[in-house]
């Protein structure tokens, strides 16, 4: 039915493609089928209004669409106008690509042949190393930062930087920094054992060794500080054992320098002696005044016209100098020897023997040490000869300046102070009271022999007073018979 109506209406419909296109138009066929379902009255009355309403709605929709998407329409129109020129250009480029494919294939074959993995290919090896370096750049940067971190830890724990801090904070800071530096150095040495042939690791090890030399210098400077504590001294010696293990046995594997001290004992004593000397050098103003009195005394003894009644007398400045000198010497010498014994001396075997003998048990003798092939004898501990040098330092000063003091009570006070100093060191096995009795004066006047004899009698008198005082103190305290002197 719809086809018949379309044939009837075809001459009256304005179609650019003719009746045939109208018959094949799905919309027209659908509308004709709808018309066949309507009555004649509906077609005459309601259908024109419905068509007018639909046309108006369609017009509004087209207007809204053109307002909303007019830019896209213009762009599409421009592209459509250029499509005629783009298609020939695309065809030409495709032809050029087709002609270049054989050449590209040729280059690919040549590249694969040149950079093949088989055989020795230096270029490929360099590229492979560069790629591996790129993958491990973070690890390498961490390894390269190790010397800088080590140097920072060492420099921040140096005595100059620690001086800016105060008290326990400075000690704890130095301890943590030195521990961090030693951990970093151990890590670098471990890397050296894992990669012994790596030039990068070798360079890092060299830089780390330079930093550890600076740390060794700082530790030695720390041993020279004044009033060092036992804990700080033990920590410093322990760090030195880790930083410079070659000092454990400087003469080689078949030698020894003392009980578990190596060269550290001598180094410790030298540093503490340097601290003592620097402390005594602070008395230089008093020493200059004492030198002036020495000069006046020597000038008075060399003048032939001076008589006994007009001889020089005095020595107050020398007394001040010697009193302060002996005080510092007594305190520092006792501290040096005491610190050394606490750090280096091991008496475990002797203590076991003493405790066993006190309990009445039979003890086996200590095992004999196997003698090693050493052409030289084992060196004695550094403390064996150190007190001799300490005593020589004091006796030289007393021999030079004690004759300036002519007042008897002042001389007895100084000599008593020296005896207290000798007794203080005597508690550690370094009593030198009898050595000081051999002091001689340098006076060359006619009464030199009498003066020398007087000094000997003076020493005897001072020692008798000292022993008498010690006996009284023992009776008061009912303690063991020992010197009552404290350091």
UniProtKB/TrEMBL annotation:
Topology with respect to the bilayer: Peripheral membrane protein
Location of this chain's protein in the cell: Golgi apparatus membrane
Membrane-traversing stretches: none
Keywords: Golgi apparatus, Membrane, Protein transport, Transport
Region (Disordered) location: 291-313
Matching Pfam families: Dor1
Single GO cellular component term: Golgi transport complex
Annotated Low complexity bias: 300-310
GO biological process: intra-Golgi vesicle-mediated transport; protein transport
Protein name from the UniProt record: Conserved oligomeric Golgi complex subunit 8
Subcellular location, principal: Golgi
Superkingdom of the organism of origin: Eukaryota
Source organism (scientific name): Talaromyces rugulosus (Penicillium rugulosum)
UniProt similarity note: Belongs to the COG8 family.
């Amino acid at each position: 039915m719809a086809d018949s109506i379309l044939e009837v209406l075809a001459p009256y419909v304005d179609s650019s493609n003719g009746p045939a296109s109208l018959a094949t138009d799905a919309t027209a066929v659908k509308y004709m089928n709808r018309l066949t379902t309507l009555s004649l009255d509906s077609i005459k009355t309601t259908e024109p209004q419905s068509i007018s309403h639909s046309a108006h709605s369609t017009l509004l929709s087209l207007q809204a669409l053109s307002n909303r998407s007019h830019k896209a329409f213009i762009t599409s129109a421009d592209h459509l106008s250029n499509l005629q020129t783009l298609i020939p250009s695309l065809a030409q480029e495709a032809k050029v690509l087709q002609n270049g494919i054989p050449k590209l294939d040729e280059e690919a074959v040549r590249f694969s042949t040149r950079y093949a993995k088989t055989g020795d290919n230096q270029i490929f090896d360099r590229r492979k190393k560069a790629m591996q370096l790129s993958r491990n750049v973070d690890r390498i940067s961490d390894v390269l930062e190790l010397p800088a971190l080590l140097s920072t830890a060492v420099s921040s724990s140096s005595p100059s930087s620690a001086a800016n801090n105060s008290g326990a904070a400075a000690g704890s800071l130095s301890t943590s920094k030195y521990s961090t530096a030693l951990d970093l150095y151990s890590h670098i040495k471990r890397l050296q054992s894992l990669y012994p042939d790596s030039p990068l690791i070798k360079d890092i090890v060299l830089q780390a060794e330079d930093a550890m030399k600076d740390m060794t210098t700082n530790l030695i400077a720390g041993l020279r500080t004044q009033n060092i504590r036992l804990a700080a001294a033990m920590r410093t010696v322990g760090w030195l054992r880790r930083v410079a293990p070659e000092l454990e046995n400087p003469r080689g594997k078949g030698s020894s320098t003392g009980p578990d001290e190596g060269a550290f004992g001598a180094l410790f004593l030298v540093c503490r002696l340097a601290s003592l000397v620097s402390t005594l050098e602070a008395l230089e103003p008093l020493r200059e005044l004492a030198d002036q009195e020495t000069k006046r005394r020597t000038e008075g003894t060399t003048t032939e016209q001076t008589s006994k009644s007009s001889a020089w007398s005095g020595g107050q400045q020398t007394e001040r100098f010697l009193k302060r000198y002996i005080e510092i010497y007594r305190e520092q010498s006792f501290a040096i020897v005491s610190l050394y014994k606490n750090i280096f001396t091991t008496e475990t075997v002797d203590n076991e023997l003493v405790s066993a003998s006190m309990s009445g048990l039979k003890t086996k003798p200590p095992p004999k040490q196997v003698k090693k092939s050493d052409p030289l004898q084992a060196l004695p501990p550094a403390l064996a000869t150190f007190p001799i040098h300490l005593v020589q330092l004091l006796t030289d000063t007393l021999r030079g300046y004690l004759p300036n003091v002519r007042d008897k009570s002042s001389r007895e006070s100084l000599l008593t102070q020296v005896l207290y100093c000798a007794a203080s060191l005597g508690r550690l096995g370094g009593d030198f009271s009898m050595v000081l009795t051999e002091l001689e004066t340098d006076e060359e006047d006619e009464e030199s022999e009498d003066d020398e004899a007087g000094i000997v009698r003076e020493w005897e008198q001072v020692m008798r007073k000292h022993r008498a005082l010690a006996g009284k103190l023992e009776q008061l305290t009912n303690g063991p018979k020992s010197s009552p002197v404290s350091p």
